[in-house]
């Protein structure tokens, strides 16, 4: 029996951004993965390789699971990056984003290269090194989410800069961002969440050719509402996504502010 792909229950635009809403987190993740896989195949059909950036968060789990199972992708021609990493965790700590992506994607498919963000021993030098790797060629695809405070990557409202001169930088995380890590069950207590991290900046993310933004769950509804309807400003860093030439936002019914 041929399975029928889930379809969006609503499609609309917010600025230049396409917004697609699904009945469930599973359907949202499945369709986002199908779209990303199609973009990968298309890019690999016209160029030697593809360079991608991935977010590490529970909100991405369903999409990454489906993407790792997608057929007919020559992963050996894909170079992977991730968009942020904590400072101050032990190298083997399971909370590190590189470890999470290893478990959920990097160890599941045979990437040609995986560039992990390693803050040690000097986070500022590590940021500059990673910026250099990113600058070696264009970034084709970015898979990202939105935080409860409207952040993209670790660009929280107090540090977000739409004209940031840096591509990668050290940031201090705000309280809402750190509390989200506890609410997502990534840490037991807020005291355990690092206060600093390395992040790709907003201009670095916005220069990618295509953005796929996957945002499920009721805790994200207010951030999504601000992303869609508030003035574009660093009060909600994700609002800048409305200006990207090719960004799709995937929601489930719980994160949809218009439900």
From TrEMBL:
<dbReference type="InterPro" id="IPR006148">
    <property type="entry name" value="Glc/Gal-6P_isomerase"/>
</dbReference>
<protein>
    <submittedName>
        <fullName>Glucosamine-6-phosphate deaminase</fullName>
    </submittedName>
</protein>
<dbReference type="InterPro" id="IPR004547">
    <property type="entry name" value="Glucosamine6P_isomerase"/>
</dbReference>
<dbReference type="Pfam" id="PF01182">
    <property type="entry name" value="Glucosamine_iso"/>
</dbReference>
<dbReference type="InterPro" id="IPR037171">
    <property type="entry name" value="NagB/RpiA_transferase-like"/>
</dbReference>
<feature type="domain" description="Glucosamine/galactosamine-6-phosphate isomerase">
    <location>
        <begin position="24"/>
        <end position="245"/>
    </location>
</feature>
């Amino acid at each position: 029996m041929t399975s029928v792909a889930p379809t969006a229950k609503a499609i609309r635009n917010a600025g230049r951004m396409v917004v697609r809403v699904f009945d469930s987190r599973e359907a949202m993740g499945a369709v986002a993965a199908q779209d990303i896989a199609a973009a990968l195949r298309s890019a690999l059909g016209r160029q030697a390789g593809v360079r991608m950036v991935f977010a590490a968060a529970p909100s991405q789990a369903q999409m990454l699971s489906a993407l790792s199972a997608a057929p007919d992708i020559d992963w050996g021609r894909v170079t992977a990056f991730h968009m942020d990493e904590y400072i101050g965790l032990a190298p083997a700590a399971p909370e590190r984003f590189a470890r999470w992506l290893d478990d959920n994607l990097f160890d599941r498919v045979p990437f040609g290269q995986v560039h992990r963000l390693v803050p040690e021993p000097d986070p500022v030098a590590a940021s500059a090194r990673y910026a250099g790797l990113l600058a070696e060629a264009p970034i084709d695809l970015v898979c990202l989410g939105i935080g409860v405070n409207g952040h993209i990557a670790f660009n929280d409202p107090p540090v977000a800069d739409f004209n940031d001169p840096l591509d990668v930088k050290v940031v201090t995380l705000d309280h809402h961002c750190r509390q989200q890590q506890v609410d997502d069950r990534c840490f037991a207590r807020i005291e355990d969440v690092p206060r600093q991290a390395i992040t790709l900046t907003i201009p670095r993310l916005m220069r990618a050719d295509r953005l796929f933004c996957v945002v499920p769950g009721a805790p994200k509804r207010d951030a999504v509402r601000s992303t869609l309807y508030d003035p574009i400003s660093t009060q909600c860093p994700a609002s800048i996504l409305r200006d990207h030439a090719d960004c799709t936002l995937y929601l489930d019914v719980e994160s949809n502010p218009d439900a």
